[in-house]
Amino acid sequence: MQTLAVDIAFTFIDDAASLVTGLGRAILRLAMTPIDRIANACDIAGVLSERRATFRMWRANRARARQEGRRFSLIGHLSPFRRLSQLT
After folding, report:
1. Buried b (16+ CB within 10 A) or exposed e, 1-32
2. pLDDT 10s digits, 51-81
3. Rounded to the nearest 5°, which phi and psi values hold at 69?
């Protein structure tokens, strides 16, 4: 009986966390839409579209490598400087 109560509590907590995450993403998308629109309007040289294409290619290569059994280093994911890796 106790495990059932614990399972229900954990399920509730997981559902609440998912709800908060989803609402946060929705609010962030609403807030970022005008900024993205302005950025796309100001992108004369096509830098943003090139960066998006590069990111899609990188993500596809990463998914393929994961399916093949290779793993990426966790050090790169835990590094505080990983956001700076896109700067050139």
Report:
1. eeeeeeeeeeeeeeeeeeeeeeeeeeeeeeee
2. 889 989 988 888 887 777 655 565 566 777 7
3. 105, -5
Sign of the Cα torsion 45, 46, 48, 52 reads negative
8 A C-beta contact, residue 65 and residue 72:
yes
Interatomic CA distance for residues 32 and 68, integer angstroms: 36
Given the structure tokens 């793993």, which residue do they identify? 71
> Higher model confidence: residue 44 or residue 86?
44
Give dist(CA 86, CA 54) in Å, integer: 11
- Sign of the dihedral through C-alpha 30, 36, 41, 46: negative
Tell me, what's the pLDDT at 77? 65
- Contact yes or no for 69/79 (Cβ under 8 A): no
